[in-house]
Design brief:
heterodimer; A: 934 residues; alpha+beta; Ubiquitin-like (UB roll); DNA polymerase, domain 1; 5 domains; 5-stranded mixed sheet; 31 strands; 22% strand; globular; B: alpha+beta; Enolase-like, domain 1; 5-stranded antiparallel sheet; 4-stranded antiparallel sheet; 10 helices; binds flavin-adenine dinucleotide; binds FE2/S2 (inorganic) cluster
């Protein structure tokens, strides 16, 4: 820690004045900031090196990792004064002469960056390792990367990439014309993610932008009054403006049309801890220096209804006046006659389950800026923000400002992870109101605790299921009831309440089903969209009972599921007859060898363990899932356009928001093959509500299926137009050679054509797709989704009986994706989903006020991940682009129940409360040993 | 001594220990070492509103050295430096603890002394140093003093350090060459995790294979990690096999864990008993050459 100091520097630092000299990426740099300034802030704000990311400012996520004299450190907790005279290397210093280094190339080739927000930290941590150890082992790689969290990738491709640096051929072979779909095309937005050039929500803002500090409620439920703001401002003259409820033209919002129940800024009373009540604007450091205790707010705390049980029975004590019994919404699917079926069943099992609040924990906190721009003599609001849903943001912001839609433009930043969390409204209306009021650009970056306290989570659930089958092990009836804690505001609670009953039966043919749900308001954190919309919680309950029923019948767990698997031609609980692409049976077939092997291996291990007195036990478990692709019944169309330019290049106007899942790569792959040109000829205009058509939300695993179709149709439309232009047959081949279009035997010089629009498109193809659905009746009968994804996962675990700890050793994941448009990205989605499923199963629990940071809220690190083997089943969906469906959410759904199934196989303990933390599992193990139920 | 307040924005970065001590004598500066505890407490808040004394450039505080009585770990020694230092096998437990502190970045910045001064009940450095019988050396303009580690850490975030004092080193007594140690950390994930329970044992066997000297400490189950000195004395003279027969629940008296998000009190106490047995078993196995 001792570093000789150049003479002269010491006295400056000692005096706390002047500049700090250091070397950054090989060049001398001078920093003019206070000596204890966090290095990460200085790099970003003083030197403009925004490649270094900030996910927590607390050392917990590692996104800010840089090298200090060659050693990895978290730059968010390093004082710049400690860097004086030393050498700092950031992600911007890796590529030499514009050429990616081998590590970056490996990341590109193997798909190690998804959203890319952790990538700078990963690259720097790996660089430290590789500098001293050119060919490390996997364990050494894990130790080196252990301090960097990734929420997207499940780490496997990152570790593979670091290992590949030593030996692999890292050149990329782009697919030729007609071969893009199905190829492992490297991410088209990969290079900017690997060099630090990509601009996320916090990476860009106009000069002079004011900082918005949001003051939030410390109480779960309270009345409040704002004091004298003028006096407050006289005391703290650095405050350049305020926003309060009175400044919001229409002070209500929600992602759903009804109820618009959430205020932008609370008006007199708050319903959850973390609710926004007041905004202060000014220069950042000056504004954050005002102590929280000085805020001119008087609180009158009230009794908070934090649990659904209490909210449901708190007669007359309503969280929202319009919601009797504090119920936001009820979901219902009823088929056959459950009551008649159970007495006839040969075996019946029944159980209660609970799951907890789960935080998205994307590494990028919500961030962006808003500015008022004048265009055509009119003032418009321009919003730069990290979002999964630019078009909805535009509508919601226009509504809040009471402006026509065309007066708002949303320009999405790159997004550092979403998973449903950025499918909601957070900073958008706050920024909009402030910028509109002050007529100045306004920026914000949520702190990690602010992000965690104020934005929606996965719904905690309480689920009771009863499941019955006949003597042969055919399922006959399911009775399912679930309450979902939606917190203080609706968010996506209605979607959860509606999606769950449709999926409750699981991917099985079941003649009698009753599935009822409620989304319940409480004064707890808001619950909204999170990868799977409630289905993962339901799957834990139903898959656990599938195991038990199989056991009662004396049938192997895989075989039992196979017998009951829903197949094309079968009717779902909604009465929808599946037409095609129902590949669960194929998924299970794919797992048979691994299943037999895993059962045998764990039996052998346990035999040995018992003989040697070891307290470790192993087990293997299974779970299956299905998942409806796209919105539930509600229309969810996508439009895509694609143009040909005189340069001979094709431009895809791609409004399918990239959130790390790969839409900026997959859409061009699909369009390239549909047009018949190599993907390398396609440029893109990325989503921007002024420049691209509405391709809907990046949610519900819909983009590949819905926008993929739109991209395909658009490219086919362009192809038709071009062939017509060339006067050739509709099945003629089409090529672009320089600035010439060659169709069949005719050749057209593109330079000689007149553009049809000011953007320079010579022809513009347009495609639209809206999945066909049929509204559900009062019993939930209808066609909620056009297609379903299917999956089966097999988990192998090792449980420590002494400590109640679980090590997941291996997960085999078989997914029916219809068609893998890009297998690397499909695997990446599966790995990432499994990581989140593992977190849900074993460690993740958000408790407002207690786990509002990444120190106490634990997500899996590189050392917690099992080996993952993927099996891609391609049972083509006739409605999908080249047969593709979706995989984003399905990957997560079966993981937790598969792990619980394996825990039960290892120990006999049935997990009924997620997460199964060591203390809970240990308590359950003890109760089990004592023959009790817990 | 007189009390004055340091100017809020001041930041001192002395290279001489005497300058550092003079500053502390003058005003209650907040000591800044690796900053891994300092910064996380200030998320979204200013970092320049307190007067800081950055000790990382004080030459006399760095590095690990051999002394007549044992080993001296300078106050600014980082966890990575502990891991990389060529130390006798009795330090293996401390090295294992070092590898379990956060992730590599935290180990590169965080210091051993910072870990002790921060005095978290879950500080991973404390049990191995307690088991080794370490002392803390404090200095001020008035002189230096040494305190056994168990008397330095007084409770949750409480130490015996006076505001004008600086911890300048951690002193570890010499152990026989054949002495061995162990460390086990129980956490909910592999990296970047605060311990639910952790413990360390150190043992030296005599030529006859009997315990000549030993130490055992358990952390995160009381306001400050506990060293079980009476038990250690009781085990002396026994073989490891006999020692296990001696172990009784009363030997671990004083553990008083709390319920928190990491684990229930009931779980902690049970895990602590198991873990105590395991760290002893590991240290014994190492000492007997069985592992
Ligand atoms: C992400 C993360 C993970 C972590 N994981 C772990 C973990 O697994 N286990 C664990 O034990 N800790 C962990 N920590 C805590 C921390 O890293 C350690 O306690 C570290 O050893 C502290 O050293 P430091 O030099 O960074 O302390 P600093 O933050 O510089 O100082 C800590 C405190 O001690 C005082 N101080 C420091 N040195 C002296 C001195 N010589 N004399 C007097 N006072 C002094 C400071 O004033 C301050 O109050 C973690 C921290 C982070 C951010
Ligand atoms: S931002 Fe530095 S560790 Fe998270
Ligand atoms: S790619 Fe790692 S967090 Fe998104």
């Amino acid at each position: 820690m001792n570093h000789p100091l150049e003479p002269g520097l010491k006295s400056l630092a000692e005096a706390g004045l002047g500049s700090i000299a250091l070397t950054v990426n090989g060049r001398p740099a001078l920093l003019n900031c206070a000596p204890p300034t966090r290095l990460a802030h200085a790099l970003r704000d003083e030197l403009g090196l925004t490649g270094t990311k900030i996910g927590c400012d607390a050392g917990d996520c590692g996104a800010c990792t840089v090298l200090l004299d060659g050693k990895q450190v978290c730059s968010c907790i390093t004082a710049v004064a400690q860097c004086a005279g030393r050498e700092v290397t950031t992600i911007e210093g890796l590529a030499q002469d514009g050429k990616l280094n081998r590590l970056q190339q490996a990341f590109l080739k193997y798909g190690a960056a998804q959203c890319g927000i952790c990538t700078p930290g990963m690259l720097m941590a790996a660089s430290d390792l590789l500098a001293g150890n050119a060919a490390p082992t996997q364990a050494e790689v894990e130790d080196a990367l252990g301090g960097v969290l990734c929420r997207c990738t499940g780490y496997q491709k990152i570790v593979e990439s670091v290992l590949a640096v030593a030996h692999d051929d890292l050149t990329l072979e782009p697919p030729t014309a007609g071969r893009a779909v199905g190829s492992r095309l490297a991410r088209l937005d990969g290079v900017s993610k690997l060099t630090g050039a990509e601009k996320y929500g916090a990476d860009e803002y106009p000069a002079g932008a004011l900082w918005l500090r949001v003051v939030r409620s410390p109480h779960a439920r309270a009345g409040f009054t704002l004091g004298d703001l003028d006096a407050f401002r006289r005391k703290y003259p650095q405050i350049e403006g305020f926003i309060t409820a009175a400044d919001v033209p229409e002070n209500s919002f929600c992602v759903f049309p009804v109820p618009k129940d959430q205020p932008v800024l609370a008006d007199g009373h708050v319903r959850f801890r973390g609710e926004a009540v007041l905004g202060l604007l000014g220069e950042r450091d000056a504004i954050i220096a005002i102590p929280e205790a000085e805020m001119p707010i008087t609180w009158q705390p009230r009794h908070a209804l934090t649990e659904p049980e209490e909210a449901l029975t708190a007669t007359g004590d309503l969280i929202h006046d319009f919601a009797p019994e504090n119920v936001l919404c009820r979901g219902r699917v009823v088929k056959g006659d459950v009551q008649a079926a159970f007495p006839m069943a040969a075996h019946v099992v029944e159980e209660n389950f609970r799951t907890s609040y789960v935080e998205h924990a994307y590494i990028e906190p919500e961030a962006g800026y808003a500015e008022v721009v004048s265009q055509g003599g009119q003032e418009r609001l321009r919003l730069f923000v990290c979002t999964q849903t630019p078009y909805m943001d535009k509508e919601e912001v226009a509504r809040v400002l009471k402006l026509p839609h065309d007066r708002v433009r949303v320009v999405p930043s790159a997004i550092g992870g979403g998973f449903g969390g950025k499918l909601d409204i957070s900073v958008q209306p706050l920024l909009a109101v402030a910028a509109w009021k002050l007529k100045r650009p306004v920026r914000i970056v949520y702190t990690r605790p602010e992000s965690m306290a104020s934005t929606p989570k996965r719904h905690p659930s309480r689920i009771r299921v009863r499941l019955g089958c006949d003597k042969e092990g055919k399922l006959t009836a399911m009775d399912f009831a679930g309450d979902f804690n939606t917190g203080a505001y609706a968010s996506w609670g209605s979607t959860v309440a509606n999606r769950v009953p449709i999926h409750a039966s699981g991917p099985y043919a079941l003649p009698n089903v009753r599935a009822l749900t409620r989304a319940v308001y409480t004064n707890n954190a808001i619950a909204g969209a999170f990868r799977g919309f409630g289905v993962p919680q339901a799957c834990i309950a139903t898959e656990t009972l599938m195991d038990e029923l199989a056991e009662k019948c004396g049938i192997d767990a895989l075989e039992f599921r196979y017998r009951n698997a829903i197949r094309a031609g079968d009717a779902t609980a909604c009465g929808q007859v599946l037409q095609a692409s129902a590949g669960l049976d194929q998924c299970l077939d794919a797992l048979r060898p691994a299943w037999a092997g895993a059962k045998e291996a764990s039996a052998a291990f346990n035999g040995q363990a018992i003989r040697s007195g070891s307290r470790k036990r192993r087990g293997a478990g299974l779970a299956c899932m299905w998942y409806g692709i796209g919105n539930t019944v509600i229309a969810n169309p996508s439009t895509m356009t694609i143009g040909l330019r005189a340069s001979g290049r094709v431009v895809l106007y791609n409004g399918a928001q990239e959130i790390g899942q790969g839409t900026y790569t997959i859409m061009p792959q699909i369009a390239a093959d549909a047009l018949g040109v190599p993907v390398s000829l396609i440029d893109q205009v990325h989503s921007d509500t002024d420049l691209t058509e509405d391709a809907g939300k990046s949610s519900a695993s819909r983009q590949t299926f819905v926008s993929g179709n739109a991209a395909k149709f658009a490219a086919e439309d362009l192809r038709r137009q071009l062939l017509q232009l060339a006067g050739t047959a509709a099945d003629a081949t089409l090529r672009l050679e320089g600035t010439a279009l060659i169709a069949g035997t005719s050749r057209i010089d593109l330079q000689g054509l007149t553009p049809i629009n000011e953007r320079g498109d010579l022809a513009l193809g347009s495609g639209y797709f809206n999945p066909p659905t049929v509204p559900l009746d009062a019993d939930g009968q209808g066609v909620p989704y056009a297609t379903f994804a299917f999956a089966a996962q097999l988990a192998e675990v090792e449980v420590d009986l002494d400590y109640g700890t679980v090590k997941v050793l291996h997960i085999h994941a078989a997914h029916d994706v219809g068609r893998a448009v890009n297998p690397t990205q499909v695997e990446g989605q599966i790995h990432g989903g499994i990581a989140q499923g593992l977190g849900l199963a074993l460690m993740e629990e958000y408790i407002s006020g207690k786990t509002d940071n990444l120190h106490d809220y634990l997500i899996p690190t590189v050392g917690d991940m099992p080996r993952i083997t993927t099996y891609l089943i391609e049972d083509a969906e006739p409605l999908g682009p080249y047969g593709a469906k979706g995989v984003g959410e399905p990957a997560l759904v079966p993981t937790a129940p598969a792990i619980y199934s394996a825990i039960r196989a290892a120990t006999g303990v049935r997990v009924r409360l997620a997460p199964a933390t060591p203390d809970r599992l240990k308590a359950a193990l003890k109760a089990h040993e004592a023959g009790q139920r817990l | 001594m007189h009390i004055s307040t340091a100017p809020a924005a001041s930041y001192l970065q002395p290279t001489a220990l005497s300058d550092a001590l003079a500053a502390l004598a003058d005003a209650p500066y907040v000591v800044l070492a690796g900053g891994t505890d300092f910064y996380p407490g200030r998320v979204g808040k200013p970092v320049d509103d307190v007067a800081l004394l950055d000790i990382t450039r004080v030459a006399d505080l760095s590095g690990i050295s051999r002394t007549a009585e044992g080993w001296r770990i300078g106050a600014t020694t980082t966890w990575s430096e502990v891991i990389e230092a060529p130390l006798p096998a009795v330090f293996d437990g401390l090295k294992a603890a070092a590898r379990a502190v956060g992730g590599a970045q935290i180990q590169n910045s965080g210091t051993v002394a910072g870990n002790l001064c921060n005095a978290s009940p879950a500080a991973d450095g404390v049990p191995p140093l307690l088991a080794l019988g370490a002392e803390v050396e404090l200095a001020s303009t008035l002189g230096t003093r040494r305190l056994p580690l168990s008397q330095f850490i007084l409770g949750n975030r409480k130490t015996a350090r006076a505001a004008h004092e600086l911890v300048i080193a951690v002193l570890v007594p010499a152990w026989p060459e054949a002495a061995r140690s162990s460390f086990i950390k129980l956490g909910t994930r592999k990296y970047l995790v605060i311990s639910i329970v952790m413990g360390s044992a150190v043992v030296a066997l005599d030529k006859a294979g009997r315990i000549a000297r030993c130490g055992l400490a358990i952390g995160a189950c009381s306001a400050a990690a506990l060293s079980f000195d009476a038990l250690a004395r009781k085990l002396v003279g026994h073989t490891p096999a006999e020692a296990f027969k001696q172990l009784a629940a009363e030997d671990l008296q004083g553990l008083a864990p709390i319920n928190d998000v990491r684990g229930s009190a009931a779980y902690r106490i049970e895990a602590a008993f198991t873990l105590a047995g395991q760290v002893l078993a590991r240290a014994f196995e190492q000492a007997e050459g069985k592992a």
